[in-house]
Specification:
Layout (H helix, E strand, L loop, with lengths): L8 E9 L17 E5 L2 E8 L8 H15 L4 E3 L5 E2 L2 H9 L3 H11 L2 E10 L1 H11 L1 H10 L8 H31 L4 E4 L7 E10 L3 H14 L4 E9 L12
Antiparallel strand pairs: 1-3, 1-4, 1-5, 2-3, 6-8, 6-9, 7-8
Helix pairs in contact: 4-5, 5-6
Length: 252
């Protein structure tokens, strides 16, 4: 194991079992080597940083994620939130690994053999609008009323049409989200459903999946993709460290 510079401030990516797998092959933030700080069978993935204030830029965020994904290849990993910097190597032991040993060991055991998969669904705009118009008489009537007429002459009708479509899409999104999540949860251990980030998003959910059920989970995603083809485009991200399912309760 490569020795760390014990006096430098340490950026902490996550926690693994000491001796599990190998260190990430690429550099960490600022291209510094990723090194282990160990204590009582646990190890923190760290790299040196100039001080305890770290800019949360795109490159830093991507590097944080990459280090954890590479660590996952060697075994279970508990990801820390972005931006955890500790004064030195000894503080990583004294403030993180040693006082929280039981909690960390319990979570490592719980997450062993499991990964996170994120599923997002994006509506195909024209397809979902056709659905709304076919299912909602008021929306269809308003669309017909404004067809071929100047915008200024149909100002209020256009506002109302936007409101009706938005309301109908909210209902449709709730139904689609529930249907997709329920289908995939049958192949997963747990799910965390996040808020959608724009109006065309149908679902944004992270699933905790046992590695030995990944093939079954993937088949279910493929089946849903075929069923919703032309109306919802599903995107699959993973396997990832279980960011959404680790609650360390550690303020570092």
């Amino acid at each position: 194991m490569t020795k760390s510079n014990g006096k430098a401030a340490k950026y902490v990516y996550g926690v693994v079992r000491a001796g599990d797998g190998s260190l990430p092959k690429d550099g960490g933030i600022n291209d510094e080597p990723v090194k282990l700080v160990t204590a009582e069978g646990l190890a923190a993935l760290t790299s040196d940083v100039p001080d305890e204030v770290l800019e949360a830029g795109r490159e830093e965020l991507l590097t944080h994620a990459r280090v954890l994904e590479q660590a996952l290849e060697g075994g279970v990993v508990l990801p820390m939130r972005f931006g955890v910097v500790m004064p030195n190597e000894q503080s990583v032991r004294d403030q993180l690994l040693t006082p929280h040993r039981e909690e960390l060991e319990a979570q490592l055991e719980e997450m062993d053999g499991k990964v996170e998969i994120n599923i997002k669904g994006i509506y195909e705009e024209e397809a979902v609008l056709r659905e709304v118009l076919a299912e909602n008489a008021e929306a269809a009537d308003l669309r017909q009323a404004i067809h071929g007429k100047p915008e200024d002459a149909t100002y209020y009708e256009r506002i109302r049409l936007g409101e009706v479509v938005a309301q109908a899409l909210t209902v449709k999104r709730s139904e689609d989200e529930r249907g997709i999540v329920d289908r995939l949860l049958g192949c997963a251990v747990a799910v965390e459903v996040s808020d959608v980030v724009h109006e065309r998003m149908a679902v944004n959910a992270s699933f905790l999946v046992a590695r030995d059920r990944l093939e079954r989970f993937d088949r279910a995603v493929d089946e849903l993709g075929e069923e919703h083809a032309g109306r919802i485009r599903l995107t699959y991200t993973g396997p990832l460290p279980p960011h959404s399912f680790v609650e360390l309760g550690i303020e570092a």
